[in-house]
Amino acid sequence: MNALHYFQALCQVQYIPIDDILRCGRYLQDKTSIEDYSYSADGLITFLNETNWEQWQAKGASAVDRIFFEQLIIDTRAALSNLNEDSSKLIDEEADFATISQKMFALIESELGSLGLNVPDAKIEFVDDFPGVYAGRDYMALTIDEGDRQEHGLTPGVYIKKSKYIPIFGRTIFLHEFIHVILGKAHPFELARGLEEGICELIGFIYLGCKALPISAVRNSFIYLRLRDQQLSMWSTYRDYTRQARALYDLYGLNGVAEIIRRGRPEIKRIEQELLSHTSPSLDLVAGEFDPVLTDNLRWLLDIYTPEMTVSPEGYRLAQLVERGITTKELHTISKLNDIEFQRGIKDLEGHVRIATLREDRSVVAFCDNYQSVNPYSIRYRVPSG
Ligand SMILES: [Zn+2]
Q1: How many CB atoms lie within 10 A of CB 252?
Q2: Ligand 1 geometric centre to CA of 159 (Å)
Q3: Measured at the alpha carbon of residue 344, what is the angle toward residues 13 and 68, in degrees to the nearest 5?
Q4: Would you write out the chain's pLDDT as a tens digit for each of its 386 residues?
Q5: What separation in Å is there between the alpha carbon of 200 and the centre of ligand 1?
Q6: How far apart are CA 190 and CA 231, in angstroms?
Q7: What span, in angstroms and rounded, lies between the C-alpha atoms of 317 and 329?
Q8: Do 61 and 338 meet the contact criterion of CB atoms below 8 Å apart?
Q9: What are the beta bridge partners of residue 367?
Q10: What spacing in Å lies between the alpha carbon of 23 and ligand 1's midpoint?
């Protein structure tokens, strides 16, 4: 599965949780596991070429599963052509946990240091299992802060479980987590949530992320982890907290956000309450340091990207074929969908995303928005349910 994560992070490819792909791939013949293929472009191509739809179908996969997988394979193949040399180097680096943690820690120290933040004596460590009382927990990343040191004698830092680590995406997570470590140093027993999460997203995930990874990988990671149409509602709240932090960044820049981190959790809670009660917060901050890369990415991710622009796999296929004046009969034929799939796809295009309208007698496409050169940033397809 790691191979697919690489491509989801580095290429323009549909952002689908690996667990969902596995769920829909439940009809894969037993021996065909993507883990059997090497973590490389060649490995993925071999996997795709050896993926045998007829065998899945024989085991009872639904028609929607078929369309979903066909589309995923088409898109992944197309995305492979975007994989450049830098991406290949990054993939190689992912095999070496020690190098990743050293590089990330050095980056955190230098970048946060230049924002005037003290980086505590903490570690980033890849582990087989979490230390002490946290052993056996089923997360990817665990943040241990000053409170855990006082209560359990553990060394503060971000611990990443090797077996749970999501290549590339995982780095943005532990950059986020490290901001909690800094805040936890002075105020270890206050619950982190709300605006604090937004600040961790803005400074850790996106700002530091863009220093550590190609910008496209950070954008893809944020979309994959926070902006999916079919995600847990908890992750949508992280997107909203990032918007709150961004409102402060827009006014006060990195200088202002760094100062809020320096003042710590009580100040974050005070500002959050004042923002939410729509009073004018008395912030007493000096504005400065507006980073163009951060500004641009916040704008694109939070203002421009449209998380809910998704259709069924059938609708997605039709979106690539529909054009003004085409008859529904012609569209049906070239789509290779059966009657039920075709009707569902048309309904999807006419409804939620409103990218096609049929003539009253439903024989011809009267109007349409042209999505024939679709990419995952403009429109996406849903994972089949069930
Ligand atoms: Zn967090």
Answers
A1: 20
A2: 14
A3: 30
A4: 445 555 555 555 555 544 444 444 443 444 445 555 555 556 666 666 666 556 555 566 677 777 777 777 776 666 665 566 666 677 677 778 888 889 999 999 999 999 999 888 888 899 999 998 999 998 888 888 888 888 999 988 899 988 888 777 788 998 999 999 999 888 887 777 899 999 999 999 999 999 998 888 888 889 888 888 777 788 889 999 999 999 999 999 999 999 999 999 999 999 999 888 887 767 888 989 999 999 999 999 999 999 888 888 899 889 889 999 999 999 999 999 999 999 999 999 999 888 899 999 999 999 988 766 656 678 888 877 65
A5: 6
A6: 27
A7: 15
A8: no
A9: 357
A10: 28
Residue at token pair 């936890």: 184
Q: How far is the CA of 109 from the centre of ligand 1 (A)?
A: 19
**Ligand 1 centre from 177 Cα, in Å?**
6
> Ligand 1 center to residue 184 CA distance, Å?
11
Q: Widest CA span of the chain, in angstroms? A: 74
- For residue 96 the two structure tokens come to 């070496």
Tokens standing for residue 283: 């912030």
State the distance from the centre of ligand 1 to the C-alpha of 65, rounded, in angstroms.
34
Q: How far is CA 276 from the centre of its chain?
A: 27
Residue 271 tokens, joined = 């500002």
User: How far lies 54's CA from each of 34, 65, 324, 342, in Å?
Assistant: 18, 12, 35, 21
Ligand 1: centre distance to CA 222 (Å) = 13
Instruction: Write the CB contacts of 371 (distance below 8 Å, at least 6 apart in sequence).
Output: 319, 320, 322, 355, 378, 379
- CA of residue 319 to ligand 1 center, whole Å: 37
- In the reported structure, the alpha carbon of residue 176 is separated from the centroid of ligand 1 by a whole-number distance in angstroms of 6
Alpha helix stretches (DSSP H) within 140-202: 146-152, 169-186, 195-199
Label residue 100 left, alpha or beta by phi (over 0 means left) and psi (-120 to 50 means alpha). alpha
Residue 183 Cα to ligand 1 middle (Å): 11
Domains of the chain with CATH codes? 3-93 (no CATH), 97-304 (no CATH), 310-381 (1.10.10)
DSSP string over 44-91: HHHHHHH--HHHHHHTT--HHHHHHHHHHHHHHHHHHTT--HHHHHHH
